[in-house]
Amino acid sequence: MARRDDPTPSNDEHATGPTPPPEPRPPEHDRVPAAPPREDHREHPHEDTPTAPAEPGAEDPRDDAPATPAEREAEGSQDGTTAARERGAEDPHGNTVTAPAPLDGRGGGKGRRRRWGPMAGMVVLLAVVMTGSALAVGAARDGRGAAGHAAGAPEPLVGGSRGADVASLQAHLRAQPKDHGGWAALGLAYVEEARTKGDPARYPQAEKALARSLELAPKNEQALAGRAALAAARHDFAGALAHADRALKQNPYSERALCSRIDALVELGRYDEASEAADTADARRPGVPVFTRYAYVRELRGDVTTARRVLEQALASATARGDIAYVATQLGQLAWNQGEYKEALGHYARALAADDGYLPALEGRARARAASGDRADAVRDLEDVVSRYPLPGPLVELGELYETRAATGDRAKAENQYALVDAWIALARAGGVNADLDTALAAADHGDTGAALRAARAEWARRHTVHTADALAWALYRNGRAQEALPHARQATATGYRNAAFLYHRGMIERATGHDDDARTHLTAALQLNPGFSPLGARAARTALKSLEAAR
């Protein structure tokens, strides 16, 4: 391990901070992208399914292989998307898209209905985006990286088209259909396309390719690690952990399995084990994918200094434009969380220089601009983001910016954004996506608080993370159950994770339960840490503090 202040390798077992990757790196058989799935950031996801190839019993790796209408419907083909556009009222899965029941329980009130007409185009866009809704849920820190490749299979094109990677693997497998490594690589490439292009139709294709690889070689670690990555992408974190452990039994140095294991433990809220897993991964396979996960585990523990240093080391190691954009964005997010807006804007500028269409960087820049007082540019940035990916996080952020700007028509514009969150959630559920965390966060402040609590309880039953603890605490508070909320609010801040929204929620809950001194402490801490953490939340925190001071 390398010491925090020394980037050179060290044999000192007590040193902290990840070891820089050796140079030159050997060819990798399980290259994993920099970005783990995340629940606190919005990443923020149509082609036909392979059928039988020339060899009996095998699968054709081509996207354009013949498929039945049922297969195209099940896997979100381009035909389904076209039909949705033509009908204007169905999503790519064939689900009818209507104005959903709003989260605030106002039913189909005339005011809401009047605004729905002008939003029809956005709803059609939502229908298309929802082919990737599984990616959006919890996609907080996602980025891009090279898809995995296997011995005997052509290496993916670094910095090239992801479609070209898939096409080259498909061509290879048509020539060599018994190459289990090639099938594993194709499965991983499909997972990567689902993640970076927002195309969940790739998930069943990935599953079939990985299954074919395991049929040919039942214990090959590439396919086992691929299954771990696929399970994590689908937010089946218990399954991801089990598959990663199986892969690591075959190859303890599998980068993808090591990374998937960290991701699963983090998303299950098992932070001590995640920290140990990050140390193990750093010792075995140092590099950008491990560095970013190592940094996030440290950030969750409140060790911002190490998290920043590790991300800077990862950025120095990154060569692919996608990795540079991703890591620079994470540095921007880390700086923004600490209220360092100028530094955050610098990191987002670097990310956008690497990839000018990288939406997480555009969204992050909008937040930093808004917190810096540049509301006009912030609104423009978020309008650009939601015009392409109308997902809950940026929709709520844009709605709150409209509310605080309070110009003529802004209230109606804000309501439109919240209505689109309703639509997103309805489409997510129609597509079988777990949207409980998104529902809880959006509905608690801008919708049906009862629905928020039901969703938060459901998510808490599945996993205990700082994010689910905070969501449950806030939903309880918004339902008038502050005393019940307080233990969860304390749990959300117990790891030392420096998040102003969590501190704000805890302070408001403490105020409601009569813990005035604690409330002053945490509301002050929220505003000192990141005074622009939320357009509406920061204003409410300042108002509550004034009230507490006046009551002294």
Order of helices and strands: HHHHHHHHHHHHHHHHHHHHHHHHHHH
DSSP strand tally: 0
Radius of gyration: 23 Å
Q: The biggest beta sheet, please?
A: none
Instruction: Tell me the overall shape.
Output: globular
- Termini separation: 51 Å
Give the integer mean of the pLDDT values: 77
Number of continuous helical runs = 27
List keywords for this structure.
single chain, 552 residues, mainly alpha, 27 helices, 63% helix, 0% strand
What does this structure look like?
The protein is an all-alpha fold and 552 residues long. The chain has helices at 69-74, 78-87, 110-116, 120-129, 133-136, 162-175, 180-197, 202-216, 221-233, 237-250, 255-267, 271-284, 288-300, 304-317, 321-337, 341-354, 359-371, 375-388, 392-405, 410-430, 436-446, 449-462, 466-478, 482-492, 500-512, 516-529, 535-550. α7 (180-197) runs parallel beside α9, α25 (500-512) packs antiparallel against α26 (516-529) and α25 (500-512) packs parallel to α27. The protein is globular.
Task: Give the arrangement of secondary structure elements.
Blueprint: H1 69-74, H2 78-87, H3 110-116, H4 120-129, H5 133-136, H6 162-175, H7 180-197, H8 202-216, H9 221-233, H10 237-250, H11 255-267, H12 271-284, H13 288-300, H14 304-317, H15 321-337, H16 341-354, H17 359-371, H18 375-388, H19 392-405, H20 410-430, H21 436-446, H22 449-462, H23 466-478, H24 482-492, H25 500-512, H26 516-529, H27 535-550
Summarize the structure.
It contains 27 helices and no strands.
